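Bumping my old thread because nobody answered last time. Still need a sequence for this structure:
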């Protein structure tokens, strides 16, 4: 497993006790989100739905790449950004 950094969206701060960055050990995006959820129960459900898909209103970036696949591999030191999608009219 490799250390990775998860930058959490402000809308999830209430689940992480206000932490903006959480470091976990993971080799895939899915593992990283599971590790985040072990530290802060309930946070992963806000990001991933019951079908193990990233929720439509959430965007997850690994580095600068917007990803939707939980099997996305992570390198050591990877930066994961979790952000809420903006919508409106």
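Sorry it took so long. Here it is:
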């Amino acid at each position: 497993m490799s250390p990775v950094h998860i930058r959490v969206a402000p809308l999830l701060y209430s689940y992480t006790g206000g932490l903006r960055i959480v470091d976990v050990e993971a080799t895939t995006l899915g593992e990283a989100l599971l590790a985040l959820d072990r530290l802060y129960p309930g946070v992963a459900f806000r990001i991933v739905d019951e079908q193990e898909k990233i929720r439509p209103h959430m965007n997850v970036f690994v580095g600068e790449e917007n990803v939707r696949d939980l099997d996305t591999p992570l390198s050591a030191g990877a930066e994961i950004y979790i952000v809420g999608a903006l919508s409106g009219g």
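Residues 44 and 50 are 11 Å apart (CA to CA). Let me know if any region looks off to you.
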